[in-house]
Specification:
single chain, 8 strands, 19% strand, two-stranded antiparallel ribbon, 2 domains, two-stranded parallel sheet, alpha+beta, 2 helices, 12% helix
Length: 128
């Protein structure tokens, strides 16, 4: 979840799969919290000169999480691999975001009316 110009939104890329109206209790809580507000889904395209050549899905090796845990990071395939996961529940009491330092990208802690990085003392942050 992100915020831009005062509006909250979700964003994803080609590594994401979106499942609309999943039949899980946490999703029902989310729908109920919207109070029948209209949701808009908008696809944003990237200019052609900024896109990298796409690797075909057929050439990626399928791995499960247990395979990835056992794998030596130095033996990871150069071209990457594909691992499909399914979110089965969402913890409503745990935030999905954190304040991240603009300088070193580490987590920031509350400091007065803003946040401060404990690593580099920067007060610039954004939510990730």
């Amino acid at each position: 979840m992100k915020t831009y110009a005062g509006e909250e939104y979700l964003s994803g890329n080609t590594a994401c799969r979106w499942y609309f109206n999943p039949a899980i209790p946490e999703a029902e809580d989310f729908y109920n919290a919207l109070h029948n507000q209209r949701l808009s889904i908008r696809r944003v395209t990237v200019p052609a000169e900024q896109t990298a050549p796409l690797q075909t899905a057929l050439s990626l090796e399928d791995k499960c999480l247990s395979d990835l845990e056992k794998m030596d990071p130095y033996d990871f395939p150069d071209g990457g691999c594909r691992c499909t996961v399914t979110i089965t529940r969402v913890l409503l009491t745990t935030p999905w975001w954190f304040p991240s330092c603009n300088r070193c990208s580490r987590s920031c802690t509350p400091d007065g009316d803003g946040y401060k990085c404990n690593t580099c003392s920067c007060t610039g942050y954004r939510f990730k």
